[in-house]
Amino acid sequence: MTAAAQRLHEEAARCIKCGFCEAVCPTLPSAGYQASKGARGRVLLADEMLERIGRGESLSGLGDSFYSCLDCYACYEVCPAGVNAGKVSHYAKEIIAESDQGVPDMARLMEKNIMRFGSLLPLGKRAASWSRGLELPATGDTLLYTGQMYQLMSFSSALTGFLRRRGELGKRLIVGSSLKFPWLMKLAVLLNDRQMFDEMNNSLRNIAYLLKLAGIRFCYMGADEPYPGTLMFDLGFEASSRAYATAVTDEFRRRAVRRIITVDPHTHDILANTYPSLVPGFDFEVVHYTELLGSLKFSKTGRQVTYHEPCHLSRRFDSLSAPSDLLGRAADISLPDRHGRRTHCCGGPDELLFPEISSGVTATRTAQLAEAGNSMTVTACPVCLLNLRHGGEVADMSQLLVESAAR
Amino acid sequence: MDIAAELREIVPDGVVTGREGLIPYTRDASHFQGAMPSAVVLPSTTEQVSNLLKYCGQKGLAVVARGGGTSLTGASIARADAVVLSLLRMDRILSVSGEDSCAEVEAGVRIDDLNLRLSKTGHLFPPDPGSSLAATIGGIINTNAGGLRCVRYGTTKDWILGVEAVLMDGTVLRLGNRTLKSRIGYDLTSLIVGSEGTLAVVTKAFVKIVSKPESVARLLAYFNDIESLGRAVAAVRASGIDPLIAEYLDRMTMDAVESTGTFKFHIHSQYVLLLDIDRAEESLDRYVSAATLTLKGCGAVEVVATRDRAEMERLYTARKGAYSSLLRLRKTEHDAVVIGDIVVPPSTLPSVFRRVDELVKEHTIRVALFGHIGDGNIHANIFVDMSDNAERERVEHFHEDLARTALENGGSVSAEHGIGMEKVSLLRMEYSYRHSERALGLMKELKSVFDPKGLLNPGKVFD
Question: Same domain for B60 and B76?
Fold first, then answer.
């Protein structure tokens, strides 16, 4: 049994089949309540996967269940037996990737892009355009690491929209061609939602402004900054993720970095929680930018907003209260019924592989947020922002914090 | 045209076939492995359910209706080839009326979701099985589920004003309505409640709702002997304090709960009694003081009262998750936990507990005890290594002796989990003990009136 299969067995074998996870799994209702696209179904299919491995049989037909998992860990919050169906899906994807049986082309393309371009898409200098004029040093003890997440949103949004309009067949053709001819990806970045691009750049400038206001000195890697590899890891490419994370870490070390300031939940999560297991000796201090702003004076802006807590902040970090604390000082906030550790995913992680499920999850969450009664939602994640915007006005937290700090 | 194609004609976007899609429907929360269904259908409307049942009836296909799949007795999985009818898409809360004390809900609505909605108007649907997060209205109606609040509010049957149910020939019956009273011949609504999907498929229900209690305090009374605990419950009730819930946990269950990190008990004792007292705000403290004195007078070594909402919530979650927490104490992956679900008159609890203790020693098995002590419901959670035939046999004998103990004390072999596949022989035992075997015969005759071909959830309740 491989290490991934062993991990899968250890996680899945504790399941008691109670179905609590299924009741909170966002993908189940969005997939028309087909149990194979819900958390309990995934654990049961993990048992099937292990049995097939034991018998030396093909794993085909099992992938969709695991790849449709949002990795939001809502299931883990309610599991009385402590099983994390999100991890079950992750280990299953590792096994599929290792065995090369049924890896979706889109997943393979993302892996290839990250390994080749150091990002999901070859953004080049575009990734650093937000920092023009800020004169940020390229090396130093404290690094502001954007992980390109904000920058990627306008491109990935335009690209997924483009693919969706081409239909399933067209999408397959384009993805298949891009696997054969990687240079096609350089054309993909010509698709860009310019308004979104400017907005995301503004968010990054806001964050840099707030950090400076708080007296934090930091460096930035500019156009050399690599994406942290989050999606590749989430898709189960364990060996590639290990090699890639090591290369990213070497770059941090080369620049004499000791402390890394992250700006989005996904990057914060992978650096703080995953890199230490991927890279031996990864001993950097990882802080979310909001944790450094406590000394700033914020005044109420008079806005009444609903706070959507990103899964990767509220569920992966027990003691990270800074985002909601700061927001509470800047505005009157309401929380939807599902908040805190029971927050609900925005649907973003499924956008590439399962756009219909993603849309369904987004619709559910936007309805929950609307029930909270405010016209504006605020979040601290560019992925959430992009998805929730389909349902109404959504702002990045940094915007409100800057407004509040400037008063 | 094959069966799947014909089912798709009825529910175009809601038919699951293929091994990978069907596997999740072979299990529920019980320890049974169900048969692989021939197809799973996910209807969205009563009309689709009607057409599906009519079709399956004509083709002679067995049908297993399924809600949240939380049955502890194997009621929601197929024993043999069948079409599984998942009602989760029927998840609308159609109306809530505080004025009429009624909500109209589809069968696939989960209990916690209903209560979340009701809480916005200060209302509550009282039945609260431990699985309320996932259990559905249709599921708890078919199980006649109970829960923690039974001591005050009774079981699900007390909260169902009417149901919409579909017979195997496709006939849609609308039984009862949104009124609190309704005398319209034989009470078919009550007949369907607890029928475990063997008579009809419930698609909608009118449920009774109440105002949420104004103020609640939660008491934890620690005891070192079970008889004192039993006396304490009787004394609290005799003193006129009508608790909202009265639960107990033994040491092993407390250890299991603590191992989940949900709650840390204040002291180390052999048993703990969990008591909720609700009163008007201005008199609640007085009642809490009176109850504390009574509990201490009956031998409680410590009593802790809390009104802190977060702590109360943690305690409630811990108690509701007790069974699941116990599963963490399984020694190997072959271990299962078989749950006894007996109920006895509360006045007999001290002697029943003594007998249970003897039985555990006689059969040399590992058992954790907890339950709804306020209504005499004891859950004996028996650890069994399913790969050890000798142990399985010992557990089976314990189960039977436990059931016999309940009967000898004026109780019943099954309180709230239903019969499913698990308690078929115990059901026979109960009617035999009462010399009322004819009752089982009548049930079978009723079943054949509703479902002449025996296609609805076959192999459940009866052999």
Answer: yes
